[in-house]
Amino acid sequence: MNKHMVDDVRDIALVGHRSAGKTSLADALLFKAHAVDRLGSVDDGTSAGDIDEDEKRHHFSIDTHVLHADHGGKHLNILDTPGTPDFIGAALEAMSAVETAVIVVSAVNGIEVDTRRMFFEAGKRGLARAFVINKIDAEGVQFSSVVDSIREAFGKNCVLFNMPNNLGVNFSGVIDIVHKSTNVPTTFPYDQREARTQLIEAVVEVNETLLDKYLNDGTISDAELEEALPRCLLAGYVVPIFCTSAKRDRGIKELLDALEKYGLSPSVSRKKLEGLSFGSNGTTKLAEPTEASEFLGHVFKVVNDRYVGHLSFIRVLSGVLTPNHTIIDLNNGKSIRVGQLLQMNGKTHVPIQEAVPGDIVAVSKVDGLHIGDTIAFRADAPMVADMHFPVPMYGVAVTPKHRGDEQKIATGLHKIAEEDMTVKITHDPQTHEMVMCGVSQLHLDVVQERLKHRYDLDMITKEPKVPYRETIGTKAEADYKHKKQTGGRGQFAEVHMRLYPLPRDIKTQDQLEANFANKSNFEKMRAVHYDPLMNFAIIDHIVGGTIPNNFLPAIEKGCKEMMERGVLAGYRIQDVAVEVHFGKYHDVDSSDAAFKTAARQAFKKAFLTAQPSLLEPVVKLEITIPTKYTGAVLGDLPTRRAHIDNQKTLSAEATIIHARAPLSEVSRYAAVLSGLTQGHGSYSMELSHYDPVPASVQQQIVAKSELKDDDDE
Ligand SMILES: Nc1nc2c(ncn2[C@@H]2O[C@H](COP(=O)(O)OP(=O)(O)OP(=O)(O)O)[C@@H](O)[C@H]2O)c(=O)[nH]1
Ligand SMILES: [Mg+2]
User: Fold this and answer.
1) pLDDT tens for residues 70-89?
2) Do 276 and 359 belong to one domain?
3) 247 C-beta closer than 6 A to ligand 1
4) What is the pTM (predicted TM-score) of this model?
5) What's the domain count of the chain?
């Protein structure tokens, strides 16, 4: 492999709607650049991009694959990303590592939901953008309407750089528009002169000298156009459109040439280093995308493959990284020794001796590097801006299919979550469930398949439990005598107690004693214990030693067990005070166990007569949607018992709605919002408070609960 400099590097992400032909295009580009010996195909599983078994089976990309080709002295890193929006995390990580986003559009389908999404995501990251209209060989292509709709949706600065000489099976090559072609057939699907005018107008629009010339002469020369283009592309003033058939190898050479010629080099596009400098206190040095600058890199992807092991992908931002070097992970301050530097090409790789700015290299078996980490040689190096990923909102509760696999499944899922920033694994302390959150059902299905293929682990998923709570509405009392005589030593305990609703605003033992558990309310009170987690108090109000002191901890334990376990429908109880005021014991047969049981049963009896009710978690929602969907979203929210707090319109792209809704009504809101907004909405959600559940809903929940009766009655 030839040594290259930063000026020669072109980092390109292929993005766009599902099935537009990104992977096929990557295969075609690699083949044309002689980076592979054989043209791969997604349809027969030989693609250089879709290398994962799951990708081959599903026939869609799931991960970003880093590919590589040398062409015309330029060093091209081509990142093939998944178009299925369920794997958006992979597409976003790829865009953080490149200067140019090539948005692939199917000539048959035209602009689709994720064409727009990717166009705007690339814009947000300051990337240069280009379109490729692919599949021009297919049946039924309405070429001019696809071009017009691109210009309509994304601006008149989107202009054809080449166009097909024909459509469908007759498409045999592209006609150059940047340079005046002479040999133009008469049956072409777009007016070539018109296309050239559009291109020139987009260029002169941002170049005064050329504008004057254009107004005077009615045209500008090829040379003038060529000279003006790089700056226009860098600033995003011109967005080129290229035409291809990846399947039939049309327009591929021309696209490769254009990427070489017009793709931005990291030395020109300095967006990623804007505002970053090394050192502090007057001795700062700007981070520059040059070999001479100090080393700074960015981890944008990690893979925990069963066969390859742990691979971390680094995009070099400044300076040079060489093999067997110690780096510092600025996100956690740890020093890490990297071994070989690998230049990846799908599933194959070659070791390289140095990585210059713009290079994308993988290092293997380095634990501790996470997506988004900045790495450098010195600790006072600047941190690269955070990468932003959508917060995953689609949750499922996970249980192992085979007993005893809990720990292995948790470990496997955490490894998968390290690779995918849109997977989060949590343990819900209230429902005791392991909950996996992702973008959608399809996304989590794929995670589940991965767990099976990589680690041979099976799991069962179901909708996570809503963490309802139970409480009481009034005072009640009960007693229970626990007596068993089964030969030998018997069991005996009797407990009398009263239950009181405890105000929800009590948070500490002091507040409890000031407002409730004091001698004016409980004249002979001996002690009170408070548990702020459950807002639970137990008051020892036993007079005359009817229960010996040493059994009180067992009584408290029994009550707390019921608080944890729930009485009505199996949910944790809160806001309850227990006053133990009387009991009986037996010198021989009484024990901790007997008193615990008696306390449990007395608590349960009292609870059921104290107007028990369910509380439900209410969440705050912040929903961001393109403004035109506001009516649809606002119309739907009330059907989910939601309360709308406010709405704010920022632009045509963003209206923000704040609302509150019961969690049970919005636990599947990800799918709902996606349906209402054609996939353009996003939201975040956090716990607000607990509210009483409406009576009708409570009945259903109680009826459905699988609460088992105690076996120790
Ligand atoms: N006729 C025709 N079919 C194509 C062309 N390019 C791709 N296809 C077909 O379109 C389908 C999808 O192609 P992919 O390359 O997997 O598309 P993709 O954009 O990578 O899809 P995702 O990664 O899942 O978003 C496959 O069946 C390809 O054979 C093309 O130029 N012409
Ligand atoms: Mg693909």
Assistant:
1) 999 999 999 999 999 899 99
2) yes
3) yes
4) 0.82
5) 5
